[in-house]
Amino acid sequence: MDALQTFLHERATDGLVSWHDQQQAGEQFNRPVAEVEETILQAGLLPARYQRNQQMISTEQQLLLFRSTVAVIGAGGLGGYILEQLARLGVGRIISIDDDIFEENNLNRQLLSSPKNLGRVKVEVAAERIAEVNPAVTLTPIRALLGRDNGAELLSGVDCVVDAVDNVPARLELEELCESLQLPLVHGAIAGWYGHVATILPGEGTLKKIYRHWQGGKGVEAQLGNPSFTPALAASFQVGEVCKLLLEQGRPLRNRQLVFNLLDMEIDEITF
Predict the structure, then answer these.
(1) Taking the model in full, what pTM does it have?
(2) Which of 4, 6, 69, 203 is the most exposed place for a label (fewest CB within 10 A)?
(3) Is 261 helix (H, G, I), strand (E, B) or coil?
(4) Which residues contact 180 (CB under 8 A, 6 or more apart)?
(5) What b/e sequence results for 225-252 when a residue is b if at least 16 CB atoms lie within 10 Å of its CB, and e otherwise?
(6) Quick one: pLDDT at residue 218?
């Protein structure tokens, strides 16, 4: 056992290492806080921030989450909630890809938006927020439009991709890109009181089936708008799917589409 592990074991209480001691270990041993977190988990201990995960996620699984890389495409309504939930869950590396800035019409629903952030680049705000929420998580902000020309480079080393874009053409292109790169994709879309979620493995082509009747235009969200609560719900479903994929647990929404209607409080499933 090296000196850092000895330090951590001496300060752990019931197998938990406090944030204070995690910080102190980084300072004393001149290690980044992310490296200290990995050492804690490797030692069979648990950063105290994750103690409420323990009944469903083992320490070994928490280490697996920490060593995972998830790319989130879009940092707006869905993306902001997804990014924060992934960081709080303990996913160690997150890539946030979006080319947009915050505008006033984002303030009603986008978690990362605020009056002081108007005009700022969304992914840069996301990086600041995640550093504040969980400093052990590494968020890489990329201000770009993801597409066929840059997809292979931007998604290199990724374990899972999350769709938080706001238009049908971008979703269909993203599905094709993930299929070519052999990456799982967790899709979500919202409009007004409604939304849906699906998990797609390479070759399944679920989005082509969902949008088989699409004839152009941005999509129904352009007509129905979005309130504050719909993106939070869809994002939570999506992060749950990501967690299952990374841990290889449960039954993902493969070849299925979960559809929710909050106006009538109904949840349905469509199979393909």
Answers:
(1) 0.96
(2) 203
(3) strand
(4) 151, 152
(5) ebeeebbbbbbebbbbbbbbbbbeeeeb
(6) 63
